[in-house]
Specification:
It is a single chain. By secondary structure, this protein is an alpha/beta fold. It has a single domain, classed as TIM Barrel (Alpha-Beta Barrel). 53% of the residues lie in helices and 17% in strands. The chain is built from 11 helices and 8 strands. Strands 1-2-3-4-5-6-7-8 form an 8-stranded parallel beta barrel, surrounded by 7 helices. Helix 1 packs parallel to helix 3, helix 4 crosses helix 5 and helix 6 packs parallel to helix 8. The longest helix has 17 residues. Bound molecules: SN-glycerol-3-phosphate. SN-glycerol-3-phosphate binds next to helix 7.
Length: 216
């Protein structure tokens, strides 16, 4: 399973990349706004930090303008993947961009049939959102299981990139489902590394070692 980092905070990305846990990065307009930095500048810095797919979302809502924005974003760096929302216009842009050899990550997917349509339209990555379904009382992981099963039935090149992950449990269920990629907020990546028994075990080791009065 690949881990992408879901943020536009380059300091956070650098920290995770230095651990060797950043196979790519996803951004979205909200994350870019939160960074407070010019879009192209932050994308270029992210591309310098992580040598993997870097998702950058269009903000136009009609296909021709999405195509124009997508081509501009793709020119920033060879690793840029253009993000388009799962709307009719977004799928038209997905088809046009993929026909031009530009990879597309179709985002804001909430159902298996939306994912199937995106795969048929040439998407390279499918981003089904988990947390936002949980937030409204739906079973956020159910579509993930369905999408992975559907994709396994056919030979579409699209990779299942589980997004809107709020907890380590979401990551665990996504991995159990066989998703290709999970895009993770930096805090979730750090959360999966922590366990109270690890902390307690290390303290016991060090306490016992201190009794030996030795140095390595
Ligand atoms: O970046 C796409 C997705 O991961 C956003 O997640 O937490 O805003 O629902 P969230």
């Amino acid at each position: 399973m690949k881990f992408f980092v879901d943020t536009a905070d380059t300091a956070e990305i650098r920290e995770i990349a230095n651990l060797g846990l950043a196979d790519g990065v996803t951004t979205n307009p909200s994350l870019i706004a939160k960074s407070g930095r010019p879009y192209a500048e932050v994308l270029r810095e992210i591309c310098d930090i992580v040598d993997g797919p870097i998702s950058a979302e269009v903000v136009a809502t009609e296909a021709p303008a999405m195509l124009e924005e997508g081509e501009k974003l793709a020119k920033i760096h060879r690793n840029i993947v253009v993000k388009c929302p799962l709307t009719l216009e977004g799928l038209k842009a997905t088809r046009a961009l993929s026909n031009r050899g530009i990879r597309v990550n179709v985002t804001l997917i909430f159902s298996p049939l939306q994912a199937l349509a995106a795969a048929k339209c040439g998407a390279s990555f499918l981003s089904p959102f988990v947390g936002r379904l949980d937030d409204i009382g739906h079973e956020g992981m159910l579509p993930i299981d369905q999408i992975v099963r559907i994709m396994d039935n056919y030979d579409y090149p699209a990779k299942v990139l589980v997004a809107s992950i709020r907890s380590p449990l979401h990551l665990l269920r996504a991995a159990e489902a066989g998703a290709d990629i999970a895009t993770l907020p930096p805090d979730v990546i750090k959360q999966i590394l922590r366990h109270p028994l690890t902390d307690a075990g290390l303290e016991k080791f060090l306490s016992d070692w201190r009794q030996t009065k030795q140095k390595i």
